[in-house]
Amino acid sequence: MAEEVKGGNVPFKDIEFRVSSEPWNVYQLEDGTVLKQKYILTRVLIQEHGDNIEFRLAKQMITVATKVREHLCGPPTDPLPPKEDWGKYVSEENVSFTTKEEEWNQYVLENGFTLRIKSTLNIVSRTSLRNADWEPIYIAHSSEQVLILPPAGFRKKK
After folding, report:
1. Do 37 and 119 touch, CB atoms closer than 8 A?
2. 10 Å Cβ neighbour count for 102?
3. Please, which pLDDT band fits residue 152 given cuts at 50, 70 and 90?
């Protein structure tokens, strides 16, 4: 059963979706670290009003730093400040990176529509904070492109 969420005069409806593809994006940082990111779609809401269909998407973004060079490591920060304060601890802004893999995610909605979403890394900063594995904590900012593809034979209401 679709859950309804009020939005304007017509409720948004929670609709189910199937994951076709949710790949990891991979970036090589200039400091030798490999940064991996995964965009995970967690919820899709749809609102139909007249000829218009509006979608609202919810997501989780997972970012993992791997292959961290030893000279960047240090004792864990304890206690670790709240995530919203990490920007106060930036030790290197705008770390250069090369994109190694960056692919489209794809989801099929229960109404036949297909969502294609591409997350792109824009800015990476390294902080002076260290995680429990003695590795630096990075702050990564990404943006998304979203394509909504209607099912075959779809026609707008008249």
Report:
1. yes
2. 15
3. confident
Query: What sign has the CA pseudo-torsion 77, 82, 88, 91?
Result: positive
Looking at residue 1, its pLDDT comes to: 42
pTM of the complete model: 0.86
Handedness of CA 12, 106, 96, 76 (dihedral sign): positive
Cβ atoms of 48 and 55 closer than 8 Å: no
CA distance 73 to 82: 20
Would you say how long the chain is, in residues? 158
Residues 35, 135: contact at Cβ < 8 Å?
no
DSSP class of residue 50 equals T
